[in-house]
């Protein structure tokens, strides 16, 4: 009986190791491929054909300055806003990929009394006050050279 349970344990351990090797190998092989799959029914995370066409036809570089505060202390408001900001970042990354190098994205974290905060003010991005009195920046400035 001991031999059978030891054999089962060895087969299980070998199976787990083989699965881990397969998963790691798959990730290594597919890492260079940046392809997203949108599995939502309404294709909520897929760029429309019109958007792709516009981005593909850009003839001069377009620069997007993305301002998003990265607060150190997590409050319910900042957690929600950081989640929304991550969605915006993902969308900008999709735009950048579809623009084939013609879209330049710069990310700024406008902390108080910083150059990024001054830049946000010059671009017309105003801070929003949260319940705790802290300021939160979330905005875009677009320019074409």
Summarize the structure in short.
This protein has 145 residues and is an alpha+beta fold. It contains four helices and five strands, in the order H-H-E-H-E-H-E-E-E.
What can you tell me about this protein's structure?
- This protein has 145 residues and is α+β, with helices and mostly antiparallel strands.
- The chain folds into 2 domains: 1-33; 49-144, Glutaredoxin, CATH 3.40.30.
- It contains 4 helices and 5 strands; from the N terminus they run ααβαβαβββ.
- The protein has helices at 2-30, 49-56, 76-98, 115-122, and strands spanning 62-68, 103-108, 128-129, 135-136, 138-144.
- The strands form 2 sheets. It has a 3-stranded mixed sheet with strand order 2-1-5, covered by helices on one side. Strands 3-4 form a two-stranded antiparallel sheet.
- The mean pLDDT is 87.
